[in-house]
Automatic annotation (TrEMBL):
Enzyme class, spelled out: transferase
Entry's transmembrane regions: 6-33, 305-325, 337-355
Reactions catalysed: a 1-acyl-sn-glycero-3-phosphate + an acyl-CoA = a 1,2-diacyl-sn-glycero-3-phosphate + CoA
Keyword set includes Transmembrane: yes
Annotated protein name in UniProt: 1-acylglycerol-3-phosphate O-acyltransferase
GO molecular function (one): 1-acylglycerol-3-phosphate O-acyltransferase activity
Length: 374
């Protein structure tokens, strides 16, 4: 990690980790004291707490890096966003697709009640992973034999969720890379399926379970297509921390859950057909650099900026008081302790960055094995 980057990561890391540990501690207390008696009250309070933490990442994208997100949606979809439960399916193109989803959820007023199906290791990430666990994210091992029961139980417990939520499901099962695309194309040819060009073949078992369980209480599926224009650099956590902008185009299309097929095989086929259409849609975007639907204004609300300023002032005040009270920097032992703490923050932030990139180097062999599992 270059020295200039360290000078950026340290203050941002301190801000996020310290505020996050405060939020996590409050979440833990509420989980033990309120949730056993009122799950609804716990969820309402936790929604507010999660936003206090996650808005800092929204601020990073919106205000620090200035990433520009262009949303395309028809009238029905745009008016429904944030006003109903929704199952959100998307292609998985970049390191920060989940963060793009958070930003759109924040604009729709449901950031604190946003959920996702994540890989199990995510919940062990300090602060952010813990906050997701308290927020009832679903964590899977990517083995259907192990995950089927966990997924179905996690979906069923959302029936009484008190606020509109989005549940994000990346049905491709992994992030798009050239090696994984090659494996998907080889598999498609061997199975007599259309060979994909811009997406991977969806793994539909989780999607079928989600539709089967949620069709009675979730009114819509939001088909989301994400692409980075050819003339824009790929957005990564590293670029965002450096304050470097990117452009992301997102198309959202609402499908009524009531119109979904009834049989599991037909639901699986519906999902595969959606991704065939999505592939053609991305071909068209590569040629025209736009989607057909109207561009919708999403703005750049100041809420994330105000929350970040609040945490900055609070933690700075607390740090000054702590150093004056303990005189921590007046002894070599105190200086060493402080240096060790800063090194630990740098290491944790490095882990965050590497974790966000963890799938981009998957080999073609590993990708082929992953495709064949479904």
């Amino acid at each position: 990690m270059a020295v200039p980057l360290v000078l950026v990561v340290l203050p941002l890391g301190l801000l996020f980790l310290l505020s996050g540990l405060i939020i996590n501690a409050i979440q833990a207390v509420l989980f033990l004291s309120i949730r056993p008696f009122s799950k609804s009250l716990y969820r309402r309070i936790n929604r507010f707490l999660a936003e206090l933490l996650w808005l800092q990442l929204v601020w990073l994208v919106d205000w620090w890096a200035g990433v520009k997100i262009q949303l395309h949606a028809d009238d029905e979809t745009y008016k429904a966003m944030g006003n109903e439960h929704a199952l959100v399916i998307s292609n998985h193109r970049s390191d920060i697709d989940w963060l793009i989803g958070w930003i759109l959820a924040q604009r729709s007023g449901c950031l604190g009640s946003t959920l996702a199906v994540m890989k199990k290791s995510s919940k062990f990430l300090p602060v952010i992973g813990w906050s997701m666990w308290f927020a009832e994210y679903l964590f899977l091992e990517r083995s259907w034999a192990k995950d089927e029961k966990t997924l179905k139980w996690g979906l069923q417990r959302l029936k009484d969720f008190p606020r509109p939520f989005w549940l994000a499901l990346f049905v491709e099962g992994t992030r798009f890379t050239p090696a994984k695309l090659l494996a998907a194309q080889e598999y498609a040819v061997s199975q007599g399926l259309p060979a994909p060009r811009n997406v991977l073949i969806p793994r539909t078992k989780g999607f079928v379970s989600a539709v089967t369980i949620m069709r009675d209480f979730v009114p819509a599926i939001y088909d989301t297509t994400v692409i980075i224009p050819k003339d824009s650099p790929q957005p990564t956590m590293l670029r965002i921390l450096k304050g470097q902008s990117s452009v992301v185009h997102v198309r959202m299309k609402r499908h009524a859950m009531s119109e979904m097929p009834k049989s599991e095989d037909d639901v699986s086929k519906w999902c595969k057909d959606i991704f065939v259409a999505k592939d053609a849609l991305l071909d068209k975007h590569l040629a025209t650099c736009t989607f057909d639907e109207e561009i919708r204004p999403i703005g750049r609300p100041v809420k994330s900026l105000l929350v970040t300023l609040f945490w900055s002032c609070l933690l700075l005040y607390g740090a000054v008081k702590l150093f004056l009270w303990t005189q921590l920097l007046s002894t070599w032992k105190g200086v060493g302790f402080t240096g060790l703490g800063l090194a630990l923050v740098t290491a944790v932030m490095h882990v965050f960055i590497m974790f966000s990139q963890s799938e981009r180097s998957s080999s073609a062999k590993a990708a082929r094995n992953r495709v064949k599992k479904d």
